[in-house]
Amino acid sequence: TRAYYKRRKLEQYNTIDDAAHLLRRSRNIMVITGAGISTSLGIPDFRSKHTGFYDKLRQKGYEDAEEVFEINNFDERPDIFFSLAGDILPNLTRVTPTHAFIRLLQDKDRLQTNYTQNIDNLEAIAGIDENRLIQCHGSFATATCRKCKYKVKGTEIFDDIRAARIARCKRCAEEIERKKDAPPPLKRNKSSSRTRTFDDSDEDEDDNIPEAGVMKPDITFFGEQLPNTFFDRFTQRDAQQTDLVIVIGTSLKVAPVSEMPNYLPHPIPHIYISKEPIAHVNFDIQLLGNCDDVVFELARRAGWDLRHEMIPVGL
Ligand code: CNA
């Protein structure tokens, strides 16, 4: 293996043709994706200047935009999250050419794992197998009650998100209704075991009207743990088996995903595709531009036919 690594280290990769060559020869490709792969559908990313969600939040007066995604802030002021989340809610039916490219890698049996930071669930819509997809930051696909942990399909709270109102838990609400309808609980009076009386404590509760729990989309907020499957699969399997890493449409600013490329030994070639160059992580090849265009060209040079409704026929 030493000689193998030495030989690999001497290889230099610079151009898009080198990248296409790497694509063709690799069998276990790790694709790490971020918000940039969905922007062509009109879903804003976080950190792009002028168009990103964070700039928009700053214009609305939120100085520290990341605070909107802090779990403690969500629990204290869910109204803030619900007043803004409609803007990043995905259209569930369409995917981008970049999603189609990842699907193509899968169809060619070259996709080891797609680690996505995206919460729009579009990889699943594009048909990436469940067992090749790690949604590092969860997704809008499901939502869970912060109070009773009741889980529902994400679509059940989409109307609330679109209407910018707090989504409340139906099960909690039913429970509250049931308690309201039920006759007040009875208990034995201490002075006489035969006399029945109302429990005083319930009278106190009446002053304190209970509220149904807030439904939180199952996206990972700052301050929440990433799913175990992320760490297990990456360290115990993929880090040993991957033969090419392609990072697409992410600024790599959020740990631990930002640390993944550096964790992988450098004889494994690293390719970066995004609009802006990156300096804090070392990549062999950086292909800069609109990722939909870049992956189309990359596939073409690899001799593959990437088809998608947004790619004009005959190109
Ligand atoms: P980011 O920090 O906003 O970075 C996005 C990167 O993509 C930037 O470097 C952009 O230059 C680049 N980019 C934007 N559009 C394109 C394009 N068309 N072609 C090529 N490059 C492009 O977002 P990250 O994903 O790095 O940050 C991680 C956050 C963003 C995760 O926690 C996500 O949940 C969160 N997020 C996800 C979505 C989504 O699911 N679609 C939307 C907004 C934010």
From TrEMBL:
Region (Disordered): 180-211
Keyword Protein biosynthesis: no
Residue positions of the active site: 137
Positions that bind Zn(2+): 145, 148, 169, 172
Cofactor: Zn(2+)
Domain Deacetylase sirtuin-type: 9-305
Keyword line: Metal-binding, NAD, Transferase, Zinc
Biased composition (Acidic residues): 200-209
The keyword Zinc appears for this protein: yes
Record-stated family: Belongs to the sirtuin family. Class I subfamily.
Name of the protein in its database record: Deacetylase sirtuin-type domain-containing protein
Species whose genome carries this gene: Zasmidium cellare
Entire-sequence positions represented here: 163 to 477 of 545
